[in-house]
Amino acid sequence: MNRHRAHFLLFMLSLILACLLQLMPLPDLLLPFRPYWLGLILIYWALEEPERIGLGRAFLLGLVGDVLQGDLLGDQALRLAALAFIVLRFRSRLRFFPMWQQSLAVFALLLNDRVLSLMERTFTGDPLPPLSFWYAPVAGMLAWPWVFLLLDDLRARLRVHEA
Questions:
Q1: Is residue 17 part of a domain?
Q2: In a domain, 27, yes or no
Q3: 28 located within any domain
Q4: Helices 135-162/3-23 angle, 10° precision
Q5: Which of 31, 53, 88, 126 lies in disulfide reach of 121, CB 3.0 to 4.6 Å?
Q6: Domain count, the chain
Q7: Per residue in 3-61, pLDDT tens?
Q8: Residue 137: domain span
């Protein structure tokens, strides 16, 4: 398998896994702590291989997430496009942060995602979400080092296998 095909396969498998993790049933007690997996994977690929993730692909990934979760069509698409824009804009700085600073930056990005979601809910007339609505960015911040290290290790193994 050539290098480009292997990297593309890893990219696609990570997106499919993120979609599956978004759909995975959890007990009601743990549901507010589910990280935004699509956002975390998008952040990783935008940091490491920005040519794979642009605003258009982020928007399409969001549309897939909307369809899978039955959300308002365009809700996640708008949020993921905004997330991709911010990450791509500040990629040169974020990439070289130590892991703890990257985790804090991911927390800020996921918090911004929640604010956009809250604005969308307000515009559509939905009631304000409970306090547990704000737990997911914290869970995403805690999951970020593991997501980053896992995907980085898989990419490194692909590079070693190619050599």
A1: yes
A2: no
A3: no
A4: 160
A5: 126
A6: 1
A7: 788 889 999 999 999 999 999 999 999 999 999 999 999 999 999 999 989 999 999 99
A8: 3-22+33-162
